[in-house]
């Protein structure tokens, strides 16, 4: 069988039905084979970076490995930001790049790049094929690696001549077996419950690992059993129902005050699938002061990496949470809840209906929580406002670039997510005017496929987060953050054939949003918002329950 | 602090790059690195000496390296009873019979071998712990050292248990 046909057969064997990518010389044999096969949908994006983000989004929504393909050289290097984004957020992906013919390697041939070397630090693993024989075994291994343990992107670099080689299609002999917790582990779990029952002020931090580990039901049962308050990280939004009485909000540098106070005052932090990222903890010395930590994560290398924990439990999230529920809840959290309820009341956000971004996010939240929607953000101020004000109840309905903070992630990711959810969930995409200029070309793909994404651009004619950082840390010396030259975003999105609403007031937004929801086609809403600062903003020097004054 | 780490890895292209790349990315300095075949055909043993601030920091890197797909086993040999050896070759200028005789004497004292001799130079080979090698170099510094090549240390733990079974 020809190598390229074998690749297609293997992709089908791995139950891949959607692939994102962009053609080029060294990957053309694979495109030729792909074109002859109608059972895999191929999505042509406008740029390789978008292919990677779209495959990433598809993976985040489906839990399957996202697949993208590109050619050697510039095609491969354009993928890099997308791969790094997926790597930082532990998203399973298989990336196939074409490479120059094996006999031309190392000669600086046309469009030759060492993508194996380039992507080494940003992939879970990568392969450089040595012979055509390895093609199928390594492709299978790539899928297995991407989806096992702590998930992540795996790249496989294939010299063009291997696509033409005649190879035998080897039988699939891989089997999946789940590991069972050993005795040591069960002792640690018992110690962890002791700590939980002993703690006066415990709190759960729910991270993205809950979503990836499909453990949201176990998390709810665990929190309810011991009446533990829950905060979520940026990646953990949706892992715990945001309208649950035990939920204290999104915590972190721009977290809700109720959530940050809960964490700051806690004597025991139970981190579930969170890596104590610096945007979560702020100043680490303040953060760990007089606290105990129980760290639950699938990746043993995360335990004690950023925060030293008294107990680390590394393994499958569902199994661990089930182990932690095997004791009588004899703890008494009433006094702690008295404090927490006060925090909730004191720090509740007052929605006035004024025309500003928090109120717009609140309106979106109120509206979409009546139905089935997914929210995708870009990176910047709007992302933080969305995290603070849009409530999510179920996992895989909130998508954002957390670890890498990739501007331009939102629109291509929305494309991948909408392709997966089809008619089941409609995607609400929110971006700033900065990020949309980076990957806005993807409106072309969205419009061409008539995907019913509603794209909301918060236009403050500036890079708001940069402006905010310059205000706080650089004496308000604003530089390269204001877009003095005006651009017409309405004409821009309309040029793709996307119906667009231009909004200047709250009433106009409410009307535009309701009209957009009523129409099953791609639409854009340009929210002309003034410049503002995201509050709260925790002080990075003095602890997450101290805040910057604007 | 310097630590001697032994890594068993699958003998595949790119393994050394994966390992060394990770160490430098995590801001550690590799003092020495060497690799070679083992008693098993498809397994490579990589011996590394790294400079780490303390054991906690070292353990973080060991955890990260253990995650590399091709890494089978990784052990901090420094914390085990172990034997440590390095091989060194030194080329010294010896253009008079007197100097040559001196160097041969020094070699005998250190139980080093003269592995090559020419009209104007000799090459010494010595295996041992790093202190012994340092002492030899110190002695030879009185003469004109033309070139040094060394392997970097390798280490084995004492007792019957190989590190793959630890």
UniProtKB/TrEMBL annotation, chain B:
It comes from the Bacteria. Its EC number is 2.2.1.6. GO terms for molecular function: acetolactate synthase activity. It catalyses: 2 pyruvate + H(+) = (2S)-2-acetolactate + CO2. Belongs to the acetolactate synthase small subunit family. Dimer of large and small chains. This is Acetolactate synthase small subunit. It comes from Pectinatus haikarae.
């Amino acid at each position: 069988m020809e190598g390229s046909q074998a690749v297609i057969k293997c992709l089908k064997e791995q139950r891949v039905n959607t692939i994102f990518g962009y053609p080029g010389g060294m990957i053309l044999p694979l495109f030729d084979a792909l074109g002859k096969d109608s059972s895999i949908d191929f999505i042509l994006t406008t740029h390789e970076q978008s292919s990677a983000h779209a495959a990433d989004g598809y993976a985040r929504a489906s839990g399957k490995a996202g697949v993208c393909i590109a050619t050697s050289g510039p095609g491969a290097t354009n993928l890099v930001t997308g791969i790094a984004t997926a790597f930082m957020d532990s998203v399973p992906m298989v990336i196939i790049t074409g490479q120059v013919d094996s006999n031309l390697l190392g000669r600086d041939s046309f469009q030759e790049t060492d993508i194996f070397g380039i992507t080494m630090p940003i992939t879970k693993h990568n392969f450089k094929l040595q012979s055509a024989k390895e093609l199928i075994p390594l492709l299978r291994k790539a899928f297995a690696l991407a989806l096992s343990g702590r998930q992540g992107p795996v790249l496989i670099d294939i010299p063009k001549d291997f696509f033409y080689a005649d190879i035998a299609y080897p039988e699939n002999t891989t089997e999946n077996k789940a590991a069972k917790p050993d005795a040591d582990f069960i002792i640690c779990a018992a110690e962890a419950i002791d700590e939980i029952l002993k703690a006066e002020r415990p709190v759960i931090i729910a991270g993205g690992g809950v979503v990836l580990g499909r453990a949201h039901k176990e998390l709810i049962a665990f929190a309810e059993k011991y009446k533990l308050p829950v905060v979520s990280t940026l990646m953990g939004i949706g892992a715990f129902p945001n309208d649950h009485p035990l939920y204290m909000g999104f915590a972190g540098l721009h977290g809700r005050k109720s959530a940050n106070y809960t964490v700051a005052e806690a004597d025991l932090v139970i981190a579930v699938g969170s890596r104590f990222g610096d945007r979560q903890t702020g100043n680490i010395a303040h953060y760990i002061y007089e606290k105990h930590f129980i760290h639950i994560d699938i990746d043993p290398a995360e335990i004690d990496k950023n925060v030293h924990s008294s107990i680390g439990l590394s393994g499958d999230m569902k199994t661990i949470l089930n182990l932690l529920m095997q004791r009588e809840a004899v703890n008494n959290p009433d006094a702690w809840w008295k404090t927490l309820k006060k925090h909730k009341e004191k720090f509740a956000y007052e929605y006035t209906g004024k025309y500003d971004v928090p109120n717009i996010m609140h309106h979106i939240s109120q509206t979409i929580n009546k139905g089935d929607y997914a929210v995708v953000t870009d990176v910047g101020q709007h992302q933080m406002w969305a995290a603070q004000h849009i409530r999510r109840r179920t996992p895989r309905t909130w998508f954002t670039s957390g670890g890498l903070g990739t501007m331009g992630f939102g629109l291509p990711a929305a494309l991948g997510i909408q392709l997966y959810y089809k008619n089941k969930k409609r995607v609400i995409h929110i971006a700033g005017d900065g990020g949309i200029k980076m990957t806005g070309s993807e409106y072309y793909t969205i419009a061409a496929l008539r995907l019913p994404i509603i794209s909301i651009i918060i236009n403050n004619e500036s890079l708001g987060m940069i402006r905010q950082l310059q205000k706080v840390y650089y004496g308000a010396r604003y530089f390269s953050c204001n877009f003095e030259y005006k651009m017409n975003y309405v004409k821009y999105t309309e040029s793709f054939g996307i119906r667009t609403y231009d909004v200047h007031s709250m009433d106009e937004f409410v009307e535009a949003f309701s009209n957009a929801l009523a129409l099953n086609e791609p639409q854009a809403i340009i929210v002309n918002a003034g410049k503002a600062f995201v509050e709260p903003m925790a002080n990075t020097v003095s602890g997450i329950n101290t805040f910057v004054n604007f | 602090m310097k630590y001697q780490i032994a890594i068993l890895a699958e003998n595949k292209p790119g393994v050394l790059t994966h390992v060394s790349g990770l160490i430098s990315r995590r801001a550690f300095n590799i003092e020495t690195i060497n690799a070679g075949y083992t008693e098993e055909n498809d397994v490579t043993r990589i011996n590394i000496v790294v400079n780490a601030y303390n054991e906690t920091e070292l353990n973080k890197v060991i955890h990260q390296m253990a995650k590399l797909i091709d890494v089978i086993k990784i052990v901090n040999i420094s914390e085990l009873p172990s034997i440590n050896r390095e091989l060194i070759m030194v080329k010294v200028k010896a253009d008079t019979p007197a100097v040559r005789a001196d160097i041969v004497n020094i070699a005998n004292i250190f139980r080093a071998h003269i592995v090559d001799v020419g009209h104007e130079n000799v090459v010494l080979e010595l295996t041992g712990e790093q202190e012994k090698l340092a002492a030899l170099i110190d002695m030879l510094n009185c003469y004109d050292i033309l070139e040094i090549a060394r392997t970097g240390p390798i280490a084995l733990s004492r007792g019957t248990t190989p590190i793959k079974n630890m």
